[in-house]
Amino acid sequence: MNVAIVGATGLVGRMFIKVLEERNFPVDELFLFASSRSKGKLVKFKNKEVEIIELTKESFKDRGIQIALFSAGGEISREYAPLFANEDIIVIDNSSAFRMDPDVPLVVPEVNPEDIKKNKGIIANPNCSTIQAVVALGPLDQKYRIKRIVFSTYQAVSGAGMAGIQDLENGDPLIKFPYPIKNNCLPHIDSFLDNGYTKEEMKMVNETRKILGRDDLKITATTVRVPVLNSHSESINIEFENKIELEVCKDVLKNAKGVVLYDDVKNNIYPLATVANDKDEVFVGRVRLDESVDNGLNLFVVADNVRKGAATNAVQIAEELLNQGGIL
Fold it and tell me: Where are the alpha helices (DSSP H) in the chain?
């Protein structure tokens, strides 16, 4: 299997390389693409040095590439993903460019792997905060059918890339955020829209609906950037259409793919960013009934946003492609 990574020098691009190696994905030859600034640099993969290639409209052709993992931003994805797809290369794109395109499946393998078969050359990787949420929500929706969701997120600076990390570590002058992230929680991720929500908040609303196949699902969200280096935390309040039982909900989560039920409050066991860091699983705890509404449930959900929220989910999609025979 010949695999390409577009955006190989970025935070997620480097994690693609690490995850491919860790999961022993069947890579015969790895091609790393980045901007002209990184051309010629060497990156280690499986004890070999791989030279970075400048991404151009010709540089990826005639190399026998079968799968391309993209994480170079929406502008590059919009320009290059269709070009790769036209060369019979299946693109798994980590940007927001194609997520809401009705012709592009938006996939979290634990939740909707069957949608992979609908691809026409491009598969979208969801937003990091959406991925970890739906890993927990999917099996609960199957069991009890969700009526309404309220998301409140506490998102790490790594979700804003290297510039976000530098703002936390260095303080002034600011590179990424409008205010210092140190000692602050910023209720502002991505730009504000006319409805008063941010793009990040509406991503969670719209992507959750698409992944769960529930266009009518009532969802609201508030997303907040917090002074944490890595791993996003989310408080999720759920109202169900059917009568729920707390212990059954816990059993559903305990047996759900990709979930670690990390919930023993008597011993102060609950998900933390430091617990989820550098892990591929989604950690769920503080599972309790919402006593203010019928059939309500509260969860606290934490995951490594660079791994499961980006790189690992994309590689899992590639693995599922192989399992389904989507790559010849």
Answer: 11-22, 74-86, 128-144, 161-170, 199-212, 246-254, 273-276, 312-323
Report the alpha-carbon distance of residue 27 to residue 31 in Å, rounded: 10
Structure tokens at 121: 């050359």
226 contact partners, CB below 8 Å, separation of at least 6: 154, 155, 156, 181, 185, 186, 233
Enumerate residues 6+ apart whose C-beta is below 8 A from 240. 140, 144, 145, 146, 147, 295, 296, 297
d(CA 308, CA 131): 7
Residue 110: half-sphere exposure toward Cβ, Cα within 13 Å: 25
Residue type at 116 in one-letter notation:
I
Q: At what angle do helices 128-144 and 199-212 cross, to 10 degrees?
A: 40
Most distant CA pair in the chain, distance: 61
Q: Give residue 328's pLDDT.
A: 60
Active site residues: 128, 232
Q: Mean pLDDT for each consecutive 10-residue tract of the chain (328 residues)?
A: 97 97 97 96 95 98 98 97 98 98 98 97 98 98 98 98 96 94 97 98 98 97 98 98 98 98 98 98 98 98 98 98 85
- The answer to whether 8 touches 15, Cβ cutoff 8 Å, is no
φ/ψ bin of 161: left (φ > 0), alpha (ψ from -120 to 50), beta (otherwise): left
pTM above 0.85, yes or no: yes
Phi, psi of 80 (to 5 degrees): -100, -30
